[in-house]
Design goal:
Layout (H helix, E strand, L loop, with lengths): L26 E2 L2 E2 L17 H8 L4 E6 L26 H15 L3 E6 L6 H4 L4 H6 L6 E6 L6 H7 L3 E7 L5 H8 L7 H20 L6 E7 L7 H14 L2 E6 L14 H10 L2 E3 L15 E8 L2 E8 L6 H10 L2 E5 L6 E4 L8 E2 L1 H5 L3 H15 L22
Parallel strand pairs: 3-4, 3-12, 4-5, 5-6, 6-7, 7-8, 8-11
Antiparallel strand pairs: 1-2, 9-10, 10-11, 12-13, 13-14
Length: 405
């Protein structure tokens, strides 16, 4: 790098609690737009100046894959881009995660950090009750923290620790109806039905605890829409009503096929938004009722007319492999940090559909800010080559291929 990185702590960019849902939507002059308009890649540029990179870095979200383990097996699981066999690997070293975060918060203006998995609450730090990570988040009120969980182990003790320092709690529910939820989360009926019922009831209980605590506005109930499972108007209305009754944010995701022959389970925006309109949802005039691969509008909001008033909802797509998504990935994609196979190191995984990795271990252990930032910059410039463009198969192991039928 030609210029040293600033070591000064930058001003907080934390959002108002009331604007959490709206803040997830990218707009320009108050309207949705093709994010590709901001892409240097479209202009034939595949490198960043130090100044460009540092400005972008303030907008990035650092997303830690705390563990590849999970207490469910959803039929649509992407495992954060890792192979399914990674579910047996070691968990992330919490001390390394904290050290990396402290470096970037202090020196690079990082203001958004997410914790995911697998299922993050199955990490030993949560299971043991030590909660070193959650306690550390309280030392950084200037940072927007988020957790992405299936909600089973987000018990009151855990929620009470994160409720103040976290601005977003994502819970993957997929359906408020047990039979549908079980079909989506119980691949090949690997879990006994009674065990699944206990998990499901625990999720609902944990959600209600958050509502009672008065933090429902922080909760995003996430649902991956899979054709033939939870895409009917009855299912969609059921989830929207569930959220409206509790003051939660519903967030629908377009299914991202892991294998080419799963594309038939995708419900595109035109069809999906049409169903939402049929059950009382309203969209702005700029909402895209299409899946144009040359246009990237990943987030769209809508209003659901519930009995107790209007509720804001969201719809998101990843678009991996699509031209426009790959051209803008370096600007908007989270910086995914994962544990090495032995759990003693950590690395960046820049492209969800490819196995490329950038090792961070030595730079973090040595506390070398310049090396850390060099690695992050190189990983973003790798994305500027649009490495995953045109790829529609996530290269998952054939033995884990899921026959939805």
């Amino acid at each position: 790098m030609t210029q040293p990185y600033s070591s000064g702590k930058l001003k907080s960019m934390k959002n108002s609690k009331l604007d959490i849902a709206q803040a997830t939507i990218r707009t320009k002059n108050g309207k949705l737009y093709d994010l590709g308009e901001d892409s240097l890649v479209r202009k034939g540029i595949n490198a960043l100046t130090d100044e460009q990179f540092l400005e972008l870095f303030k907008r990035y979200r650092l997303r830690f894959d705390l563990t590849p383990r999970c207490n469910l097996w959803c039929i649509f699981c992407s495992n954060e881009g890792s192979n399914y066999s990674a579910r047996c690997q070691k968990t992330l070293d919490i001390d390394l995660a904290i050290k990396l975060s402290d470096i970037l918060i202090k020196n690079a203006g990082l203001r958004s950090i997410d914790f995911s998995g697998g299922e993050p609450t199955t990490h030993e730090d949560f299971v043991s009750g030590e909660y070193k990570l959650l306690k550390w988040t309280k030392t950084h009120p200037e940072v927007n923290f988020a957790i992405h969980s299936n909600g089973i182990l987000l018990k009151p003790e855990t929620v009470d620790l994160l409720k103040d320092s976290f601005s977003k709690i994502g819970i993957s529910l997929h359906s408020p109806n047990f039979e549908t939820w079980n079909k989506l989360t119980n691949r090949n009926n690997g879990f006994p039905v009674e065990a699944q019922k206990r998990k499901f009831n625990q999720i609902l209980s944990n959600i209600d605890h958050m509502v009672q605590l008065g933090i429902g506005h922080k909760v995003f109930v996430k649902s991956v829409i899979v054709r033939g499972y939870n895409d009917s108007e009855v299912e969609l209305k059921s989830l929207l009503d569930f959220c409206a009754e509790r003051g939660l944010h519903p967030k629908f995701f377009e299914f991202e096929p892991q294998y080419k022959d799963q594309e038939k389970y995708v419900v595109g925006r035109k069809e999906f938004f049409g169903r939402l309109k049929n059950i009382g949802c309203e969209f702005g005039p700029d909402a895209p009722f299409h899946n144009d691969p040359n246009t990237y509008i990943p987030g769209v909001n809508f209003q659901y007319k519930a009995k107790n008033g209007a509720q804001m909802g969201l719809h998101s797509i990843f678009g991996c492999g699509d031209k426009a998504a790959c051209e803008t990935c370096y600007i908007y994609l989270c910086a995914f940090v994962k544990a090495s196979e032995d759990g003693k190191g950590l690395y960046l995984k820049p492209c969800p559909v490819l196995d490329t990795r950038f090792d961070l271990t030595k730079a973090v252990k040595n506390g070398n800010m310049k090396q850390v930032m060099d690695i992050f910059k190189k990983s973003r410039e790798y994305l500027m080559l649009a490495p995953g463009m045109g790829i529609k198969d996530w290269n998952k192991e054939d033995e884990f291929k899921i026959d939805f039928c």
